[in-house]
Specification:
Strands 2-1-3 form a three-stranded antiparallel β-sheet. By secondary structure, it is mainly α. It has a domain of about 60 residues: 434 Repressor (Amino-terminal Domain) (Orthogonal Bundle), CATH 1.10.260. The protein is elongated and about 60 Å long. The model has no long low-confidence stretch (mean pLDDT about 85).
Length: about 100
């Protein structure tokens, strides 16, 4: 799943514009409209999590906001993933000589 990365502070501005466009007073109501968990919505709003591309496009479509209005990066689905398997074990099992 691709992720959307805004500049610092811009993801919160995006959510504020969505709230205004949808005439939605709280994040809780917005989370209920989109059937998302409230804590997930809070994490998106406080920029602790990156938005998924699907949620971003849904929010833009419903609120009728233009995607090109915002500056963002699209990150690959394996963003932040740790390599495991044989590579991870080799670094753990180095023999001391």
């Amino acid at each position: 799943m691709k992720r959307i990365k805004f500049s610092p502070g811009k993801q919160r501005e995006f959510f504020k514009e969505v709230l205004i466009a949808l005439d939605c007073p709280t994040l809780k109501e917005l989370s209920e409209r989109f059937d998302l968990n409230y804590s997930t919505m809070k994490n998106y709003f406080s920029e602790k999590r990156l938005l998924s591309e699907e949620v971003f496009s849904d929010l833009c479509f419903v609120s009728k906001l233009d995607k090109e209005k915002f500056s963002f990066q699209t990150l690959k689905g394996n963003f932040g993933q740790i390599s495991g398997g044989k590579k991870g074990r080799k670094s753990l099992n180095k023999r001391k000589v």
